[in-house]
Every structure is written in C-alpha cells, then in structure tokens.
Amino acid sequence: MPSRRSVLAVPGSNPRMIEKAKGLPADEVFLDLEDAVAPAAKAQSRANIVAALKSGGWGAQIRVVRVNDWSTEYTYADVIAVVEGAGEQLDAILLPKVIDAGQVRALDLLLTQLEKACGLEVGRIDIEPQIENALGLRNIDAIATASPRVKTLVFGPADFMASINMRTLVVGEQPEGYEPGDAYHHIYMTILLAARAHGLQAIDGPYLAVRDIDGFRRNAARTAALGFDGKWVLHPDQITACNEIFSPRQSDYDRAEEILDAYSHSTSEAGGARGAVMLGEEMIDEASAKMAQVIAEKGRAAGMTRTTQFSVETPEGAAPSGEPN
Ligand code: GLV
Ligand code: MG
User: Fold this and answer.
1) Whether the CB of 156 sits within 6 Å of ligand 1
2) What pLDDT digit, counting tens, does each position of 149-165 carry?
3) How many angstroms does the Cα of residue 153 sit away from the middle of ligand 1?
4) pTM assigned to the model
5) Contact 22, 56 (CB under 8 A)
C-alpha cells in the first residue's frame, strides 16, 4: 500500500490552489467537487480539475477527485467528466456520504463502463468511500467489501457529527460536557477495525481550525496512536506536521527493522531455529515480529531509511544471545 499519511483537500473551484498543490509534499491530493464547491461552481470546477490533471507538473502524490454524493443530481456527471477528461491521470474517486454497498457498486459499474469506453485498464481507478453518517457506519463491512476498487475507508467528522446530532460545532474536538470520555472512540475503532478486517487503509478527516497547529497535532496524534494510516490536511502548514505524526519515529523504525532482522536470524537454521529469543532486554517472538512488520512497512512506504544495523556480533543487537526464562 502506498503511504497516505497526509491527504490534502483542494477546492476544485480554485485553480490557483490546485496549481500550488502540485508542488506540496502531501501523499495524496483530492480535488473537491463536493462540499468545498458551491452549486453554481460545480460545472466550472469539473473543467478546472480536468485541466489541472491533464496539464502535468504533479509530484508523486496520489491524485483523487471527490465527487458529489449519490443523493444529489451531480454524481454521474462528475464521474463522467473527470474520467472522460483525465482518467489516465486519476488514481481514485472519493465518494462522500456513502450509506450502503449499493452506492459503491453503482460507482464501480459506472467506472467500469467509462474505463472500457476510454480505453483504460478496467479497475485502475480506485474508490475511497467516505463514512459520514450513522447508516454508513452501520453498513461499513458491506461498503468495505462492495468492490475490489475500495482500498481505503475515510472518516468525515463534520458531516458525521451533524448526522448523529452531536452537540458541538468544533470539528475534531470533544463535545463540551462529555469530558473526559472520547466521543469519537467508537466511530474511530469501527472504521479502523473494518479497514484492518478487509485489508484497507483508514484515513481520518479534517481538523478545521487550520491556524491551530498544536490543536491539529493533538488531534492527529490520537488517530495515529490508534493505528490510522493518515489524515486530511486543509492547509500547507498542516502537511509537515501530519507527515511527521503518521510516520513512525526514527527510533521505532530502527527498532522494528532490528526486531525483524533478529527474528529472521533466530528462526533460521544458522540462528538455532528458535522462535522466542532475547533482543536486548526484551523477549521477541512471532507476535513481536508482526508488530515490528507494521511499523517497518509504514516507515518504508514513507521513504525512511534505518540509522542502525542489526549485527549478530554486537551485544546490543545480539538476538540469539539468550533464551527467555
Ligand atoms: C468531511 O467531509 C467532513 O464532513 O468532515
Ligand atoms: Mg463531509
């Protein structure tokens, strides 16, 4: 899976912001046709997006377009416009306010026809369902498995809070009166568990107080700690913080690679074919190696390089030096 630590939201109605986004270090950029675009600007925004995708100049970002949801009159025309216009440059469609698997399948069918008609490889355009209401959360397993195009599940906190009547106007912060509980815990864990159950990435939504970088960091650190893969960013200042927060710390990455090397050595014939050994002060086994694998893969996908090397000889890194008691 590619890194999706930071997912930059850019209104399709603003060509200047789209142009700027091409050079920003977000892992994914999504060009919005939905809530950041006024109804009167939808048609022009489709044209802006197609032009920006086709004109090149992009970095390595994953390129996504958020279309309008299926309850509107815009969805089919959004999809047709961007795929016919720039399907080759498009990695995924972000589908907001999904309520059931049927909505994902409808998009899958439309994409399949368009890919065939445009001479694109069938299945090349992914779908990112956005979970933004109670029904979507209840149907999340069916949504996650509705199409092989689904690679991520995305949370939409603002719409979600509105849909369940949560009593707050501040996206990302706890509703007043509920402290010290976490009003989002159930929602986050449901999305995360569905993502992990079906081999998908879990992406947190936006933090709207764009000038409050400390608030953003606090908010992002919570979902990063749970295991989410990334989060939306709305402003260039949030990107650096987001990439840092959703990457493993260097020391954790080094340790993870060290555990994998040590475990691979200790389970080999040369290492004594042992499944549980000491690495420094800690006993490691198959489960430790799995945890290390997660961190190592996230670090590698983020382009990290290790600053320490495992060596059988050094006492520090010497996994096979002792058996657990
Ligand atoms: C994003 O779409 C949100 O509703 O928070
Ligand atoms: Mg929304």
Assistant:
1) yes
2) 999 999 999 999 999 99
3) 13
4) 0.90
5) no
pLDDT at 314 over 90: no
Closest CA to 71 of 97, 93, 94: 97
- pLDDT-derived band of residue 319, with 50, 70 and 90 as boundaries? very low
Alpha carbon distance 153, 50 (integer Å) = 25
Ligand 1 pocket member 208 (CB < 6 A): no
Tokens of 254: 């080094």
Tell me the CA–centroid distance for residue 206 and ligand 1, in Å.
7
Confidence band (pLDDT; 50, 70, 90) for 277? Answer: confident
SS (H, E, C) 208-231: CCCCCHHHHHHHHHHHHHHCCCEE
Give mean pLDDT, residues 172-182: 87
Nearest CA to ligand 1 atom 1: 156
Residue 133 has pLDDT above 90, yes or no: yes
pLDDT in tens, 3-62: 999 999 999 999 999 999 999 999 999 999 999 999 999 999 999 999 999 998 999 999
Closest atom of ligand 1 to CA, residue 205: 5
Using most ligand atoms within 8 A of CB, pick from 132, 137, 166 the residue to mutate for ligand 1.
132
